[in-house]
Amino acid sequence: MVRKIAINLKSFEKGLINKSVIQIISLCESFNFKNNKVIYLPTAYKRFTVLRSPHIDKKSREQFEMKTFKRLLSISFPIKNDLQDSIIFHPNRSHKVQTFLQLLKRTELTGVQLKITVYYDTKSKAIPDS
Q: Which parts of the sequence belong to the Small ribosomal subunit protein uS10 domain (predicted)?
């Protein structure tokens, strides 16, 4: 039974990552997934210093900076202990999650790297001590 889906987004442009988050949230709302959280992760900075001329004038340098913007989108599903709410009696819920993940895989999010992590619970019988 799916309990939570975490989607990590990375991009070099702030506008692209914000547009992608809005697109994913609208996809969640079309599937009636209500528990969405967007967590803004810290921006990673990489700075490079390059010599302008390799032969002379060592003091003449150029500096560049590369920013990586990150977001974490968390979609959680309520878990109830009732047998009526279990996945055995509601196969549509797992089907909705699979369809959502397939649509998310097929959407074009240019300039954005996605990493999808699915957390789920399994029901197992207790093993008696022997």
A: 6-117
